[in-house]
Amino acid sequence: RSTYILKRRYPVKLYRKGVDRIRLKGKDYVYDLIEDTTVTKKPDVQVILKEYIEGLGQRGDVVTVKRNVAYNKLLIPGIADYASPEAVERSKFVKEKEKEVQSFSTLTALQTVRYLESHVLSVVMNKETEWTIEPWHIRVSFRKAGIHVPDECISLPVKPIYGPDANLEGKEFCVTVTINNKEKVNVRCRIHHWSTNPADRLPHIDNHWLLECEPIFPEEADTLKKLSLQSSLKKKKNEVSSF
Asked: Which GO terms describe its cellular component (predicted)?
């Protein structure tokens, strides 16, 4: 319903007792618009989620969202209800029942898992000094990519990886990252040898993460293939969303 709240710009004089009704002048019909409810921002609404929604909440959580989001993306699809007092009480009972059911540790845990699964981590190793890949090498590689991962959250392959070895150049292996001591995600890592001498450095390859590479360990081939497929699907999704 549309409502307009108006106010006279010039107050009308009161009638004197015993005086006939006077005729209003033109200025008495001039009004100022105080409020137009058709353009007034509607308050956000609270809804109760019926299932886990990535980036929003767990099942039974009461969240506050914009009206159009609540109506079009939550209420119509049937994945949320209005947060009435009765529904809030029911949600508390449901959450108590599901405490033992596995759920994500945080609202962004699933987003983090998907991001890491689609990421190709470049592990740059020295071409001149002997090395064995350790968790801190992976931590530094993550840091270069703008991702903070503590050493204790990184699990390396069972078999050690030694170098420098030209046969390992551009090949992949898999590490496991633990998120919030709960979720585990596999991440593709690709070895690249680097030298302090510019003349000995290998040529730069643009968009190396788009190239298919051999696994260092054949037993990890299936896992790396699945991660590669997920990375390709994410790339196509981003290309479609950019139009």
From this structure: ribonucleoprotein complex; ribosome
